[in-house]
Design brief:
It contains 16 helices and no strands. It has helices at residues 6-12, 23-31, 36-72, 74-83, 88-109, 117-133, 137-153, 155-187, 193-215, 219-228, 230-243, 251-274, 281-297, 307-314, 316-319, 323-350. The protein is mainly alpha-helical.
Length: 358
Amino acid sequence: MAPLPPARAAEEYPGSGAGRAGGGEEAALSATPLPALPARSTAARRARRRALLHAVLGAFGLAALGVLIRHVGAAEMLAAVTRAAPFLPILVALEAARVGCEALATGALCPRRSVPPVELLRIHVVSYPVMALMPAGRAAGEAVKAALLSPHVGAPRAAAIAAANQSLALLSAAPLSLLAALAIWRIGGGASALALGVLAHAALLVASGLGVAFAARQRAAFAWLARRFASAGHAAAAFQEAVREHAPVPARPFAACAAGRAIQAAQYAVLLAAVGAGTGPIRALAAYGVGAVGTAVGDLIPGQVGATDGAFTLAAPLLGLTASSAIAISVLVHLLQAAFALAGIAAALAWRRRPPAP
């Protein structure tokens, strides 16, 4: 058999001598360390473990929802959802307004005229599926927003805006949660485990929101980072400079986020009316508190499926709901989020990014 040409031999037998340029290069190549491979392997293993955990939690949430629906009766739950169909346009409009409030908050944090309004809207529509469906969706969604904002405002400022948005999302929910605790207290005739849980949730929101706001402004952590990692230190310094462009709790973005939370409470008023339950500001605030606690408990479950459903089932007597109506409210919330998530996925595919102005 005729010998293979050197080039072909190098392709088919990369370890053979035909693919080597010479002994010196071979020794150099064999002696070159590959430090990145273990790090990549470790990162891949961690990603697989996280994906597996999320899949297990998602399956657990779906199973819990299935058990709840079977317990209350699928026919009764579907009948309650069907009765709510005429209210869906109102719920969609309110959800769109809530997303618009978040876009206004982000726009107020950006330098003036740096991001076109249409691009701000696109960023929030595209990040909606991550926020609504991913485990710990708020933090993941803010990371997506930062990546989409960076071509317009730069990476350090985009990261600072994401940190501010995370802090404001927590702080703006605290007043509504406090009012929800008072509403549950009044409806329930005094202190209850649910009222105390919502009150504790409000306190946790304040503590975590202020913690995020002030941790980003601490010089000691960034000085330590700069001493040990020069490149990271420069990036951290730019990030901290961008963070200090705004107050720890900027007024206009906070007002926009608080308006979004108020719209969310209005959604629960519509949902109560949609399933034929008694409504009103106090009952709507109580329902908001139940949904907030369920969302917080199920933060690591994709879409909080099963967690919010269980919370509404347990709080059904307090809210004056039947078990089937309570499940119908949580299912309607899931359907609304799923519809907007699908719209966000379609926007990511079809709505192209507008290039930033020079």
